[in-house]
Design goal:
Length: about 575
């Protein structure tokens, strides 16, 4: 039995056999083959090259020439490498001489070439190392394709074990069979963790070296409440966890039973609880869990699920389905937040040295106007179907907001010319996710209709801690005094400017933070649907005057540890069973 401690990111207990996924960036373990398998492995290398060449040729042909031909050039370089016979020969020689798998041979030959190139003094040559790593990923995708298919065609319940999962991979999991997730990398607000939570799959991340301890088919317990993963539990542990899992399900049912009760504090203040969604069919779940609308629709998932970029009609269909399902309840559609760890089809292979500080989110949209306008048209078209609002992510300064609004007006004019109906008074809001936006909130508030604080990014950018990097996850906390002071500034400025404000980062679903946020003046929280009942119960158990006291006390503290301990203590007194 092996017990590993990580970060709990999605609540619940799961017990099932492990299925290990080799992540694309993971070093392929050296596996030996029987001499009789040599011919088949060499053939697999040939097939992988053939398929990779076919895939790249199609992608190259599909490139939009208006992009300046840069992407086309990248694909052409990759194709030249793939046509180089000496590279393929090195791999097949390795299979014959060392009796290793095709995947291992491909990976080790390409890593050696990449290492060699990266040492070059010539910048052009050293940059080619990144191309070689991309080719490695592409070939491995072909060579390991069968294993990935196994994830897509599951027939029994599993716990997915991986070094790292992307949000796209996680979104593709079959909820019926994927019962738990455990990964070496990740953080509470990494996008894969957010997806796991919205799919209600218990998950623990940042387990550092879990993959070294697990073999495919091992029994795994994922304790998504305490952040623990147990490999091959003994009989007594297994029995305890089966009991614990039953009790947890009962607690969830009890909470669900009060889902239609209003979210009102004991002293009568109404709090609005909305849901965060990534896919249209989740809107129903938000309503079932007692949410009153959608406070954040992360539309970039439309790009992450397919091989081709969505058309205006694809956007329209997804939004129309969601808006109709809400029957007049509010929905905030956020324009795409691509870049960093989420990429469009055509930009998937463009590497940036610091992607979270790079061409991400609204910046990316403002440089890809065709794509941006396509989405804006669809959002405007659905605005007549319900209570639709639009929100721009990662605004860092007023100029960006003005640019985004100007483009929105351009699109409105195009629709006017075509006599396409839309809501001219559609509320336009922004996310406050950077210290610069928080510190200039009042002037931003003069030019928009509402704020939503994205505490996931606000925490990352204020504390200079990558939200998905397990090596620094102990430094990542939205309860840090610096983050809290920025939240308070934004809340006060929104109040002064008389515009509505909500919190839509993961902080809104942390039971310990509810009293503090209410005490700081927040009245709308948007969170992943499985957490709505629990947060509602906390809202219904507190008095606003106590929340105000908690906020005053916390804002006078200077240490994150002191604040977290104080918040936990205050929340435990209110609702012991939630902790
Ligand atoms: C945030 O940053 O808090 C947020 C809600 O946006 P996302 O998690 O999609 O980056
Ligand atoms: Mg964000």
């Amino acid at each position: 039995m092996e017990i590993k401690k990580g970060i709990a990111v999605s609540p619940g207990i799961s017990i099932a056999k492990s299925l290990i996924i080799d992540s694309e960036d993971y070093r392929i373990p050296r596996r030996s083959i029987h001499p009789s398998q040599r011919v088949a492995e060499v053939q697999r290398i040939r097939n992988a090259f053939k398929d990779a060449i076919g895939e790249l040729t199609r992608l190259e042909a599909a490139q939009d020439p208006s992009e300046g031909g840069k992407i086309k050039d990248i694909f052409a370089v990759h194709l030249r490498f793939l046509h180089d016979r000496s590279m393929r020969k090195k791999m097949t020689d390795l299979v014959h001489s060392e009796l290793v798998t095709a995947a291992y041979a491909a990976s080790s030959v390409l890593r050696e070439i990449a290492q060699h190139l990266s040492k070059s003094q010539d910048a052009y040559i050293s940059e080619r190392a990144a191309d070689i790593r991309d080719i490695e990923r592409r070939l491995l995708k072909q060579l390991l394709g069968k294993r990935r298919e196994a994830v897509e065609h599951l027939t029994e319940e599993v716990v997915i074990v991986a070094r790292e999962l992307s949000p796209t991979e996680t979104a593709g999991f079959d909820r019926q069979f994927v019962k738990g997730i455990a990964s070496d990398a990740g953080g509470r607000t990494s996008h894969a963790a957010i997806v796991a939570r919205s799919l209600a799959i218990p998950a623990v991340v940042a387990l550092e070296d879990l993959t070294a301890y697990v073999n495919g088919g091992d029994t795994i317990i994922v304790d998504g409440n305490r952040g623990i993963v147990i490999v091959n539990p003994d009989g007594e542990t297994l029995r305890q966890y089966e009991q614990y899992s039953k009790e947890f399900v009962e607690l969830e049912h009890r909470l669900d039973a009060m889902r239609q009760e209003p979210a009102i504090t004991r002293d009568g203040t109404k709090i609005t609880l909305l849901g965060n969604i990534e896919f249209p069919d989740e809107a129903d779940v938000v309503l079932q869990k007692g949410g009153e609308g959608i406070g954040l629709y992360r539309t970039e998932f439309l790009y992450l699920n397919t091989e081709t970029e969505p058309t205006e009609q694809d956007h329209y269909n997804a939004y129309a389905q969601t808006v109709r399902g809400l029957a007049g309840k509010p929905i905030v559609i956020r324009t795409v937040d691509l870049g960093a760890d989420k990429h469009t089809q055509s930009k998937r292979f463009v590497r940036e040295p610091n992607p979270f500080l790079g061409l991400r989110s609204i910046r990316f949209c403002l440089q890809n106007l065709t794509m941006f306008k396509t989405q804006l048209r669809a959002i405007l078209r659905v605005s007549v179907l319900g209570n639709v609002r639009i929100m721009f992510p990662l605004i860092t300064n007023l100029h960006e907001l003005m640019q985004a609004k100007m483009i929105l007006r351009d699109v409105m004019e195009d629709l006017d010319e075509e006599s396409v109906p839309y809501n001219r008074d559609l509320p336009v809001g922004i996310m406050i996710e950077t210290p610069s936006a928080a510190l200039t909130a009042y002037s931003l508030a003069m030019d928009c209709d509402f704020f939503s604080i994205g505490t996931n990014d606000l925490t990352q950018y204020t504390l200079a801690v990558d939200r998905g990097n397990e090596l620094v996850s102990m430094l990542y906390s939205s309860a840090d005094p610096a983050v809290l002071r920025l939240i308070r500034t934004v809340t006060q400025d929104a109040h002064k400017a008389q515009i509505p404000l909500s919190i839509c980062g993961e902080m809104a679903s942390e039971p310990e933070c509810v009293m503090l946020l209410l005490g700081m003046g927040v009245r709308t929280l948007s969170l992943s649907s499985p957490m709505i009942p629990e947060i509602k119960q906390i809202v219904r158990s507190v008095r606003l005057q106590d929340c105000n006291k908690v906020a005053r006390k916390v804002l006078s503290m200077n240490s994150e540890r002191q604040i977290s301990a104080y918040l936990r203590n205050a929340a435990t007194k209110i609702l012991p069973e939630a902790f």
